[in-house]
Design a protein that fits this description.
Layout: H1 2-7, H2 13-43, H3 49-84, E1 105-110, H4 123-129, E2 133-134, H5 135-142, E3 148-149, H6 152-170, E4 174-177, E5 181-182, H7 184-190, E6 201-202, E7 208-209, H8 213-219, E8 224-227, E9 233-242, E10 261-271, H9 275-295, E11 300-304, E12 316-324, E13 329-338, H10 342-347, E14 349-352, E15 358-360, E16 362-371, H11 375-381, E17 389-390, H12 396-399, E18 403-404
Helix pairs in contact: 2-3, 7-8
């Protein structure tokens, strides 16, 4: 109840408990009826004809009653499963109170906010000036929020993907390219259904287009038993991503901030079932993203997300928000979360501990880089008075040039 209140999730926990009690009671009665059936079945070979007739009458009554109870169980199970899928994971005690992202708590900042001696341009103006993107034709071809990235806009995206993947693979992450088109079970397993359905694109054949590489990466290990000695497993996964941006009507309607189709490099970790271990990896994943943002010279801040800004399964989440000069504020570019065993129970991802006991693993994820969104602070923070854009030194070997323009 407290978790639901803190996360501002509407679920009647008392109704769930009542439904669970009904489910257990009906199951108990069904098992009792089946035991009676077995008892009478065992009596038939030794019974005479008169006794058999009485047994058959009793068995018919049992069968009818059993069918009735099984029908009741089916209906109760539908309600029970629906309610269970709405139960939120319990947030960590350190998660701040609050209803929305406006209540998130700033933890730290990094970098000098640039003070331009000229009238700084937005990423849209810079993109149009240097022919990095075409929003007009993007809208004509792909609809609202559509875009084309071209010339150095495309090359810069390729460079960023390579930059992040290479650094993370050097740190022991396994690189993967994962599917964007996934089935319903993968989204239920990772907690994006049923609550997030409005933000998902659905195909005619009951498949979905995922909004993050985390979904397929986690589902890659579904119904798997791992060994504790092999943990943690670390993946850096790439995929195209799709979001309808439901509920964002009128927000960021221009440019690259809130587009329907984008690309993500995602960090995913599977570790032992220990809160301390999850916290350690959570800090490490956040530090990975921060280190690479620093190498890009992008000023940012880290915030602890409040209860109302947590997803159903998240125990705790940090957002990294990059400084966007044209808006004069920080905008979210990364999210780092840990889930304990919320996802692994749904996906049945277990490991055998040192004592041979099977336990559900813990899971975590964090954005490595999401494009084209990160292009916004990258272009805007590194613009110069002559209109050129300086490429951070750490990115030049991937991009092949020192500046744009």
């Amino acid at each position: 109840k407290e978790a639901a209140e803190k996360k501002h999730v509407a679920i009647d926990v008392n109704d769930l408990i009542k439904t669970d009690d009904q489910r257990r009671e009906i199951l108990k009665e069904i098992e009792a009826r089946r035991a009676e059936q077995n008892f009478f079945s065992q009596k038939i070979p030794q019974a005479n004809e008169n006794e058999k007739e009485g047994i058959f009458i009793e068995m018919r009554k049992l069968k009818e009653d059993l069918q009735k109870r099984e029908g009741e169980l089916k209906e109760v199970m539908k309600k029970w499963q629906s309610l269970m899928l709405q139960v939120p994971n319990i947030p960590d005690v350190s998660v701040p109170e609050g209803a929305s992202d406006e209540d998130n708590l700033e933890i730290r900042t990094w970098g000098e906010i640039p003070k331009f001696s000229f009238s700084a341009k937005s990423h849209i103006e810079l993109a149009e000036q240097h022919d990095l993107a075409d929003f007009k034709r993007g809208t004509a071809v792909s609809g609202f929020r559509g875009y084309f990235l071209k010339n150095e806009g495309a090359t810069l995206s390729f460079a960023l993907w390579n930059f992040f993947v290479r650094h993370l693979t050097a740190d022991g992450f396994t690189p993967m390219i994962v599917p964007s088109m996934v089935n319903k079970e993968t989204l239920l397993g990772t907690g994006y259904l049923p609550q997030g359905e409005d933000d998902l694109y659905k195909t005619q054949d009951e498949m979905y287009l995922s909004g993050t590489a985390e979904v397929a990466t986690m589902s890659y290990l579904a119904d798997t038993v791992l060994e504790e000695k092999d943990l943690p497993l670390k993946f850096v996964s790439f995929s195209p991503c799709f979001r309808r941006e439901a509920g964002s009507y009128g927000k960021d309607t221009k440019g690259l901030m809130r587009v329907h189709e984008f690309f993500k490099v995602e960090q995913v970790v599977i570790c032992e079932a220990s809160h301390q271990t999850s916290v350690k990896h959570h800090e490490e994943l956040t530090a990975n993203a921060e280190t690479l943002m620093q190498k890009l010279g992008i000023p940012y801040r880290v915030v602890a997300n409040c209860g109302g800004d947590l997803g159903l399964g998240q125990v705790k989440k940090y957002d990294i928000e990059a400084w966007v000069p044209s808006e004069g504020k920080y905008r979210e570019t990364h999210s780092a979360s840990y889930f304990h065993d919320f996802q692994t129970r749904r996906l049945n991802i277990r490991y055998r501990d040192k004592d041979g006991k099977l336990r559900f693993a813990h899971s975590l994820n964090d954005t490595a880089v999401a494009t084209p969104r990160v292009l916004i602070p990258l272009l805007e923070n590194h613009q110069r008075e002559d209109g050129s854009i300086i490429i951070p030194e750490s990115l030049r070997e991937y991009f092949g040039k020192e500046k744009i323009g």
